Amino acid sequence: MSMLIVQVIAIGMQLLSKVILSNGTFVLALMTYRHVVAALCIAPFAFFFERGVKSKLSWSVFFWLFLNSLSGIIMAMGLFYYGLKDTTATYAINFLNLVPVVTFVFSIILRIEKLGLGTGAGKIKTSGAILCVAGALVACLYKGKAFYLVHKSLEHHVQYKPSKVHWTRGTIMLIGSCLSYSIWYTLQAKLIKVFPFKYHTTMISCILASLQSAVVGVCLDRSKAAWKLGWNLQLVTIIYSGALATAATFCLICWAVVRRGPSYPPMFNPLTLIFVAILEALILGAEITVGILLGMVLIIIGLYSFLLGKRKEMKDMPKPSIETAEAAITVEPTRIQPMASVKPVSTSPTNTTEDIELGSVKDALKP
Q1: What does the alpha-carbon distance between residue 125 and residue 107 come to, in Å, rounded to a whole number?
Q2: Which residue in 30, 178, 241, 287 is deepest, having the highest Cβ count within 10 Å?
Q3: pTM listed for this prediction
Q4: CB–CB of 303/267 below 8 Å?
Q5: DSSP H helical segments within the chain, as ranges?
Q6: By three-state DSSP, how is residue 214 classified?
Q7: Per DSSP, what are the bridge partners of residue 147?
Q8: Distances (CA, A) of 358 to 133, 325, 354, 362, 363
Q9: What is the pLDDT along the chain (367 residues), one digit of tens a residue?
Q10: Which residues form the EamA domain (predicted)?
């Protein structure tokens, strides 16, 4: 349910971003303001639920947080925005569907996850990932007959269709964004181990991202027009993307990575393609092709195959192994505390995983 909520939020962000970027909004200004809003939104949760975390910050943790914001925001998000500006929302979303498989490959190379081709779960999971990529490639490369869901569109209100001259540049940007997102998802597994505080992780990453965006943006464009804000759709997009698409989404993804691994959250990206393609056709009057419909079918089959394999893999995994994996996340910060100051965490059946995680963090922070 958390990952479905993430995809619903992403749908609105893609369409709003496409409209304002087509109207000339400076990408790095959008990213700077967006992450300032995100940091402000997540700050109350960070200071209320994770009080006393400042003592856990070190140069090593700061280094991982810096890489987190650089790879997942400046590179991944920035390149995606530029690719989205030069292409269409549906075309750009296709490249996000490659993120799960690339993340899966990175996780296997770094030995975070196992391929498991010798097991039924591994075969189903791998087949599902391949089908997702096949569906994305079909939707991207094969056009077929085109049709429109509505005859009237809003194209006379906004400059929507990009110039064909920039399609190659946009594709290169989107490929770079795909690789950066995969690196970012893989980094989450490491970051959660060294700093298992999702609210502070999101807040600090957003602060660093806004500073990085501002520095790069000022170097590229210092004009007041590029950084000017008004009471228009641009402001709505900044608030929406900052509060929901960044603050809420980052926390939900971090929470999901702890419980299902780095390759689980991006497997839901294909759902965004389906909804964006439909809404883009209804709202912006974009065309829908046979290739997109065929790609959607393959993506849905591949997605559920991967999730089925992942679920079977979790069931086949010995229960102590799962508990040990989750305990490694929550016990990590207690290692620097004196033994007398650490209270045992209750593992009674009435406690949920979230209760155990919150309890271990509070006990670790007590003097």
Answers
A1: 14
A2: 241
A3: 0.69
A4: yes
A5: 2-22, 27-49, 59-69, 76-86, 89-96, 99-109, 120-141, 167-194, 198-220, 224-227, 233-240, 249-260, 269-283, 290-316, 319-331, 353-365
A6: helix
A7: 288
A8: 37, 16, 6, 6, 9
A9: 888 899 889 888 888 888 888 888 899 999 999 999 999 999 998 888 888 777 778 888 889 999 989 988 889 989 998 988 888 777 787 777 777 778 877 877 877 777 777 788 888 888 888 887 788 778 777 778 877 766 544 444 444 444 444 778 888 899 899 899 888 888 877 788 888 888 888 899 999 999 999 999 999 988 888 898 888 888 999 999 999 988 888 888 888 888 877 767 877 877 777 777 777 777 766 677 788 788 878 877 887 787 788 778 777 766 544 444 444 444 333 333 443 444 444 444 444 444 434 444 344 334 3
A10: 14-138, 169-305
Q: DSSP readout, 329-341?
A: HHHGGGGGS-GGG
41: amino acid identity, one letter? C
Q: What does the alpha-carbon distance between residue 35 and residue 241 come to, in Å, rounded to a whole number?
A: 9
* Alpha carbon distances (Å) from 50 to 143, 198, 200, 336: 50, 9, 7, 17
Beta carbons of 361 and 330 less than 8 angstroms apart = yes
Residue among 1, 37, 4 at smallest CA distance from 244: 37
Judged on CB neighbours under 10 Å (0-12, 13-18, 19+), 201 is buried
Rg (CA), the chain: 21
Q: What is the secondary structure of 13-36 as a DSSP string?
A: HHHHHHHHHHTT--HHHHHHHHHH
**Of 120, 118, 144, 98, nearest to 302 (Cα)?**
98
Assess contact for 333 and 361: CB atoms under 8 A: yes
Taking the C-alpha atoms of residue 221 and residue 40, their distance in angstroms, rounded to an integer, is 25
